[in-house]
Fold this protein.
Amino acid sequence: MNNLVFSSAVLGGSIVAGFVGSLTGLGGGVVIVPLLTIAFGVNIRYAIGASLVSVIATSSGAASAYVRDGFSNVRIGMMLEIATAAGALGGAALAAHVPTSKLAMLLGVVLIGSVFAPSHKEQAAGAQASGSKSLAARLGLEGVYPSPQGEIAYAPRRIPFGFGMMGVAGVLSGLLGIGSGAVKVLAMDLAMALPFKVSTTTSNFMIGVTAAASAGIYLHRGYIDPALAMPVTLGVIAGSFTGAMLLKNADVHRLRTFFRAVVFVLGIEMIWNGWKGAL
């Protein structure tokens, strides 16, 4: 396969990856790593390096549009990023002492189980957020997001529980070298009862911060190849902007169904990779 055909094929796959990552809040790496390693035979270290660049591109591309349109809650994202960053540091410290293959299988089981977990109902347009004495109100985490029916008010619940889940997501990220976007979305959607569109868009905002630190390490070790990262980045940006435009009017039920389908496939992939690593 010559370089032009290879780059064109990677570009096309990256557009799909950016589209999926933008709509689900998982980041394009969910598709990029298996695409590059399985379909194109790229060394997994270079695939992860390109994936990290693509995650940053997804966050920079889609998140900017989501913040502008009023979907992402920046205050919630920055608060939860504290737990994620602290967890990632702890996970990185444990990485040399914990068998990651078993953790990968455990994460896969958790992700598959989360697919069948009941989700909270979205608030109706114009619904009031929590009372003025709630923790969300005191921290200024309440917000509104646009919908075809008008602006919808919301307030996060069970904030300490969600903060703890973000710490777990960070530990998994540090141990397994993944963005843990699925855990982040689940924490905000199921634990904190945020509207699904707010969960996915805020996750897109957060994953770029987490990936930037890891990308620096991979760049230092020489695992980011510009010839590979460039078509990946361009494709992911194009796909993420397309996803951002479609999300504005997307049906929440169909969006959540799409997310769960992607998470189910991701769970199977984690179990499979963990099982192979344990052999």
